[in-house]
Amino acid sequence: MSAPPLNAIVEKALPAPEIVAPREESPARRLAIEFAQNPMAVVGLVVMLLILLVALVAPLIAPQNPYDLAVLDIMDGRLPPGSVGGEGTRFVIGTDDQGRDMLSGIMYGLRISLFVGAGSALIAGIIGSSLGLAAAYAGGRFESAVMRLVDLQLSFPSILVALIILAVLGKGIGNVMLALVMVEWAYYARTARGSAIAERRREYIEAAECLALSRARVVFRHLLPNCLPPLIVVGTFQMARAIALEATLSFLGLGVPVTEPSLGLLIANGYQYMLSGKYWISFYPGIALLITIVSINLVGDQLRDVLNPRLKR
Amino acid sequence: MSAARGSDAALALEVRGLSTHFESRAGVVRAVDDVSFSVGRGQVMGLVGESGSGKSVTGFSILGLVDAPGRVVSGQVLFQGRDIAGLRDEEMRRLRGRHIAMVFQDPMMTLNPVLRVDTQMIEAVQAHEAVSKAEARGRARDALGLVGIPSPDERLRAYPHQFSGGMRQRVAIAIALLHRPALVIADEPTTALDVTIQAQILAEMQGLCARFGTALVWITHDLSVIAGLADHVAVMYAGRIVERGSVDQVLDAPMHPYTAGLIGSVPSRTKRGERLRGIPGMTPNVLNLPVGCAFRTRCARATARCEADPPEFGVGEGHAHRCFHPLLAAQEVAA
Amino acid sequence: MLHSGIARVAWLGGSGLATWLIRRLIQAVFVVLAMTLIVFLGVNVIGNPVDILISPEADAQERARAIAALGLDKPLWEQYLRFLGGVLKGDLGRSFVYNEPAIRVIIQRLPATMELAVAAVLISIFVGIPAGLYAGLRPNGWLSRALMAGSILGFSLPSFWVGLMLIMVFAVQLGWLPSTGRGETLGLGGVQWSFLTRDGFLHMILPASNLALFNVSLIMRLTRAGVREAMPSDYVRFARAKGLRPRRVIGVHVMKNIMIPVVTVVGLELGTTIAFSVVTESIFAWPGMGKLIIDSINLLDRPIIVAYLMLIVLLFVGINLVVDLMYAALDPRVRLEEQG
């Protein structure tokens, strides 16, 4: 559909946007400023970093190590939020059926969730991007083979792919990460290829090639940095998706083992108690999961808006 | 229609002081600024200007089709003596297509690509008259025949993209004339077509409008089209009408420097070996119009006086312009 | 989404509808074959086929007999052909848990899942499209903004958590709706359906809504984007210039243009919805295929797993094919391009 003519008049009338920033500002600083235009995204970023921090230092700040069996007292089990346990420990958001402090459980759970989510997003990113870039650069049959594979993969819902892999290979944290990587790589590949195709036609690539630089060098030193922005956006969204998918798989009992529960498994543990009113065992880990996913999505949304116009330079 | 018919009946359309503004973040764009002209019954008025001059917006404003962020802020649009500028939506809808029709520039985009041609024609008939589908279809077929489309029955069942550009525009014209409107506004209907087709469509439209007594407002940037087609001309620049009059008056004795520049820049007027004459400078940024006469930044005759808004000066029968230093220093009579 | 749709069809070049159909079919067959290979390899190469296909409770003699019967002592490629043969005949082993042919166990549960999936798709159409239409026509109203914010949540929230919240709010706290199970069913055409009874219908509401959430958000956003793109377009302005009533302009001109991507998405999402029913069915204890597969994975009832995977891939490939066909049928531009 063509652009409406009336708005085109207005568009034409507006002064041309400032594309070139003044010299003193580095691109990173400019990025930060533009990012900050959206207050929601800033909130998201702050929350995200906070969560990351909590996850990293959980062993240091958690009131209790929920997996140290020596500390647990089953008599403390299923206590509502705010209760005080046998030893005088305050359970801010209650305990689960084993007497574990929910707050500590959530902190440790965040570690696993983030580790799996970010880890798989990163690995899938490296694999997928490399394949996409290589496909775009090599062209020909290789490219169409890879892209067909990508299309095929993307036409299957993620949960199905994960299910297939976990059903065949079995459970465990390694298999879960493998399944997540298999689900995610295709998005990176498609984005990387699309970006690379657009960039490849630009003059600086021709120039680099004229200098007889090796292909690998052209791809990695010249093509990649300019394809990076959309890949970062994809990576952010994929991380959120991976965390959500891992939580779903763990909830179904197909994910991480009981000894290292992620947020999804925590929620699963509390499921049976929901009907009897002991909602906190599932509810609070769910809130933590929610906040994590939503904050990452907010950041990703703003990143996408901020990084996109740059590509049109 | 209205009580006070009298001389107004001879005028199909009279626009008085029409202004349409667009509000954007960067300021107010006065796309149409105090525009006035009139079109007699069965007459052809050419509205000429560069892109961005506001001519299309004028056409939309007359029909009330200006979308947000634009709106008509002032003025009157007298259709057959009746002011339609402030009409309610439903009343306006009844006028559109039936008494006032519009033909757009690019028929590929104006005909809905996913609907068949007969659907789009039948709905145009049924929107205003309670007739059966079969009868509406018959009228559609007749209308296609009118504009010279062969085997209309087959063509009716086709989709727009199966037609060539010229054919599509003929369909659009057929739709416009379905209800024999008193006024047709044609917004650059031949700009997107081949030159040979242009001439055909032009001639056909002229013929049909003469036949049905339909007044025609032909919006274009191409003066040569106007020369052969129109009875009257209004030249627009930066939202204002800078000169208007009969075709003979304006083209043979232009008063405004911009008009002269337009005439001079028509390629067919230059002799072989002569340089093509363009108007120096560029269309001004509509948000940042020069104060006073908008043309003064490109005008060789501009003086300090031109920093004031030039009012309309009448020169002779129906011929008016907005210039403090017109080309023929006739007696200035304040309009 | 729209682009992938056009790409799907254009990908094969404009060489005629029949050719395109044949090529798609071949592609579909390839995918299914690839799946059989993956499953076969997974069972026979990665896993231990003896454990997978023979019930762990069998004694040595039964095992030996089973091994011979299943041909596990034959070379690999022969086993694969045997497996393929079994797939074509519909014989995919016997469930350990139910001691019935795995296929039959799954098919028995198919109606329950289809019920839920179809209900979810219907909800997403009848809620998503009107909501998107409203949000597109009045983009700055508070309701529109709220709907858009809600749709973002609808995407990003993991559906299992939403399901839990639904149970918590509507079943536990408010007590309006039942929390789990299928409720009463009524037979129609030899199959038991729950939407035909009031009790069954009530049981369906929460799980169907849960399943529909993602789709509703998707369809709502898609419709809104389509409306916002269509309203200022030239053909809408022309329709208004013809003097058409607003109802017709929106109901026919705008909607017809929007319908193409929306229908495509709905079709594609049917497969995804069936896949995600594994989550919803597990939460709501809905006795469908999804719950079966999860239970089977946990109980190590491998024949069921194998049968389910094959069935769902077949279903999926079939749905994608139908959607591509529908897309070609709906968009006259695509259809006619291929005849050229």
Question: How does this structure look, described?
Answer:
- The complex is a heterotrimer of chains A (313), B (335) and C (340).
- Chain A is mainly α.
- Chain A is 71% helix and 1% strand.
- Chain A has eleven helices and two strands, in the order H-H-H-E-E-H-H-H-H-H-H-H-H.
- A two-stranded antiparallel ribbon of chain A has the order 1-2.
- In chain A, helix 4 packs antiparallel against helix 5 (140-154), helix 4 runs parallel beside helix 7 and helix 5 (140-154) crosses helix 7 (173-200).
- With 335 residues, chain B is of the alpha/beta class.
- Chain B has eleven helices and 13 strands.
- Chain B has a nine-stranded mixed β-sheet with strand order 6-7-8-3-9-10-12-11-13, with helices on both faces.
- In chain B, helix 4 packs across helix 5 (133-146), helix 5 crosses helix 7 and helix 7 runs parallel beside helix 8.
- The longest helix of chain B is centred in the middle third of the chain and has 18 residues, at 195-212.
- With 340 residues, chain C is mainly α.
- The interface between A and C is large, with 43 and 50 residues.
Record the SSE blueprint.
The complex is a heterotrimer of chains A (313), B (335) and C (340).
Chain A: H1 5-13, H2 27-35, H3 39-61, E1 83-84, E2 90-91, H4 102-138, H5 140-154, H6 158-169, H7 173-200, H8 203-210, H9 215-251, H10 263-274, H11 280-311
Antiparallel strand pairs in A: 1-2
Helix pairs in contact in A: 3-4, 3-11, 4-5, 4-7, 4-9, 4-10, 4-11, 5-7, 6-7, 7-9, 8-9, 9-10, 9-11, 10-11
Chain B: E1 11-24, E2 27-40, E3 44-48, H1 55-63, E4 70-79, E5 82-83, H2 89-95, E6 100-103, H3 107-110, H4 117-126, H5 133-146, H6 152-156, H7 165-177, E7 183-187, H8 195-212, E8 215-220, H9 223-229, E9 232-237, E10 240-246, H10 247-252, H11 257-265, E11 313-314, E12 320-321, E13 333-334
Parallel strand pairs in B: 3-8, 3-9, 6-7, 7-8
Antiparallel strand pairs in B: 1-2, 1-4, 4-5, 9-10, 10-12, 11-12, 11-13
Chain C: H1 2-10, H2 17-46, H3 49-53, H4 60-70, H5 76-89, H6 102-137, H7 142-156, H8 159-173, E1 186-188, E2 191-193, H9 198-230, H10 234-241, H11 246-284, H12 289-299, H13 302-330, H14 332-339
Antiparallel strand pairs in C: 1-2
Helix pairs in contact in C: 2-5, 2-13, 6-7, 6-9, 6-11, 6-13, 7-9, 8-9, 8-11, 9-11, 10-11, 11-12, 11-13, 12-13
